[in-house]
Amino acid sequence: MIAFNKYYNHFNLISTILIICSLILLVFKGLNFGIDFKGGTLIELRSSDSKINVSSLRDKFSQMNLGDVSVKKFGNDTDYLIKFENKDNKKNIIEEIKINLDKSFGNNFNFRRVENVGPKVSAELLKSGVIAISLSLAIMLFYIWIRFEWQFSLGAILALFHDVIVTLGVFSLFSLEINLSIIAAVLTIVGYSMNDTVVIFDRIRENLRKYSDIKIFELTNISINETLSRTIITSVTTLLALLAIYFFGGEILKGFSLAMILGVVFGTYSSIYIANTVLVRLRVSQKTVLKEDDQI
Amino acid sequence: MLYFSKLRIIFITLFSFLFIAIASSNLFKIDDDFFDKKINLGLDLQGGSYLLLEIDNAPVIEQKLQNLTTTIRNYFKDQNIKINNIKIEGENIFFNVDDQSKQIIIDTFTDENSDINPYYPRFKSHQLNIEDTGVNLKVNFSKQGIITLKTSSQDQAIEIVRRRIDEVGTNEPNILKRGNNRILVELPGLDDPMRVKSLLGKTANLTFRFVTNNENDSFGVEKLKYEDGIDEAIVSKRIIISGDNLLDAQPKMDTQTNQTIVSFSLDRVGAKRFGKATSTGIGKQLAIVLDGKIISAPVIRDTIASGSGQISGGFTFQSATDLALLLRSGALPAPLDIIEERTVGPDLGQDSIDAGMIALAIGFLLVIIFMFVKYKVFGLITNITLIINLFILLGILTLFEATLTLPGIAGIILTVGMAVDANVLIFERIKEELKDEKNNIVAFDSGYIKSRTAIIDANITTLLAAIILFFMGSGPIKGFSVTLGIGIFTTLFSVYFIARLFTSLYVSKNRNKENLI
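Above: the input entities. Below: the C-alpha cells describing the complete assembly.
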C-alpha cells in the first residue's frame, strides 16, 4: 500500500501555489484568445515554392496594411498560418491578399483554410463558452450533491476548479491559443476529472459504512489504494488515445489534445490530492454517511 | 449477473451484427435510398464554406418610416386633420397636430381595427406605438412590430439567398434561419467561395432613373457615384422601373461593339413604363443604378416598346454573368453582412481525414496492446468488445446520418480510451472479491454488482458534459459532443451485454481455475 496520505499537506501546499500562480497569470498575462473569441481573420496557406520562407512572407504581409499580422509556420515547412485583426471587417480582404501574393511570389499558394469571425460573433462565442463551462460546473455540483453528502461535493468541485484553473494557467504561461476546441476540451476535462473523483468517493463511502473504527485520514488512503490500479489503467489508456491524437491527428487538433492531456494528468492528481484532503479536513466520519442513509 | 438466456444471446449477437453491417455500409454503394445511409462528413473534413449572414435591418426600418410619414399625412388629410412638422429622428416619427385632433389620432392608432396600425391579436400588440410627448406626437415600432418586420425580411432574404446559391449550382447547400436576423449557409465542396461571398454581399437593388440637372425635381434628387467611384451624376429619385419588373436577365455578347452586356426583358407593367419613359425622354440620360451606384447612364435615342433592353458597363463575361444572376434572383430586402466565415479547402479536409484515421488506428492499437498485456484473456475480451463498440458507434452515426467532424473523430478516439474504464472497474473489483471468495462465479457476480454505481456515476458525469457541449457548441464542436455522447451509450451496452456475455462463457468453463484474472 502506498502512503498517499503522508503527502496530503505537501501537495495541498503545492496545489495552492499552482492555483495562485495560475490566477496571477490569468489576471495579469491573460489568455491568448484565438480569432474565435477575439475576432479577426485566419488564413492557412500552403506554398508550392520552396524558396518562399516565413520572413519573406512576413515582410509581404506587413506591407499589406492589415494591422497587427502574425505569420507562423504551421506543422511542416510549406504551411503557414496567418492571423490578423481585420478591424474594418473589409469584405474582399482575402481576394486582395490573393492578388498581392500572386504579384510578389507568383501563383504558388493554396488557401487551405480561411476563417473570418466578426466582432459580434466572437463576443457571442466567448459568452457562450463561458456559460458552457460555468453551466457544466454547476450541473456537476448539482449531480454530486444529490449523489453524495455536501462534504463530498465540496471536495469534487474544488478538484474540478483546480483542474480547470491550472490547465488554463498552463495555456496562459505558454501563450497557447484558446479557441472553440479548447472549450470542448475543458468541458471534457470537467467530465473526466469528475469521473475519476466519483470512483474514489464511491469507494470511500462504501468503506465508511464498512469500518467504523478507521479514521478518515487512513480510510481515504485505503480507498485510493484499492482503486489505484483502475485509476492508473484508465488514465493510461485515455492518455494513449490522446497522445495518438496529439502526434498523429494533425495540427488542428494539437491544442485540443494538449489541453485534454493536461486535464487528464491534473484530473488524476486532483482526485487523489485535493478531493480526498477536503474530506479529511472536514472530518468526514461514518456518521456523515449514516445520517444521510437515515434520511432516505 | 452471469447467467444469459439463449434468447438474450441471440439478441445480442444479432444486434451486434446488425450494427457491424450498418457501419460497413459506409464502404459500399447501395442503390436503395432506404438502405443507402452514410455518415455525413462535416465541412472541415470534406471541404466547403460555412457562412453566417446578418441582415442589416436599419435601412428597412428607415424605409418603412419614410413610407409611414407619407401614409400618416395622406390618411389624416382625408379626415381633414393637418399634420405639421412631420420628421424622422432615429427610429421615431414626430409630428404636431392641433389639440382637438390629438385624441382622434391616438384613438386611430390604438384601435384594434385600425387601418394604418395593424394589430397582432396573437401578441396583443400593435405594430406601432404612439405617445404624446407634450410637445408633439411620437410614433415608433413596437417591440412586436420590429420582430414582425425582422422575421419578414429574414423570410424574404432566405428565399433570395437560396435562389442565388441554387443558380451557382453547388451541391446540397444547407440554408437555415438563425434567430430572427441571421441566415446560416453551409456550402459543401465549394470551388470558389469568393464568388458566392460576393454574390451574397450584394443587395442587387436595381433601378432605372433619369439623370437630371434640375435640382427642383418634385420627387427629389440625389448625387450618385459611378461604379468607378470617381464620376458623379445627379439622379432623380423617381423610379422608372426597378428590379421587380424584370422577367429575365442574361449575359450576352454585343456583336456590334464586341462588348459583354446583360440583356433583360420586362414584365407587362415594366414594359409599359419603360416604353413611356423612353418615348418622352428621348435625348435624356437614363441612369441604371445598382445598390446606389450608377452602372451606366446611356442616352435614350429611340422609344423602346418591346419591353426588353440591355445594360452595358464595361463588364467582363464573369461580372455580366453574376449581374444577370443577381437580377434574375431578385433583390434582397436589406443588405447582408457576412459576420462569420469558415472555409476549408478540399485538400486540407482530406489531410484531416487521413490524420484522424491514422490517429484512430494508432490510439486503438495502443489501447488494445496495453489491455492485452495487462489482462490477458480478459484483455482480449475487452478488446473484442472495444471493436464491436466502435462498430456500433459508427453504425449509430450511420443510421442517423450524423455529421462527422474532425473533433468528432477525436471524440471517437477518446471514447476508445475511456471505454475500457468500465471493464477495468469491473475486473479490478472482481480481483478484490477473489481475495476472500473462493468461488469464481460468486466473485464475478459480486464484482459486476458492486462496481455498478461507480460505473454509472462515472458515465453520467461525462454524458452531462457532452450534453452541455451539444447545446452550447457550434459546428465541429457539436460533432465532438455527438460522438462522445453516443459513445457512452454504446460503451455501456457493450460492457454490460457483450463483454459480460464473453466473461460469463469463459468463467463458467473455468469455474474451478485458480488465479482466473
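Note for the figure: DSSP finds ten helices and six strands in chain A.
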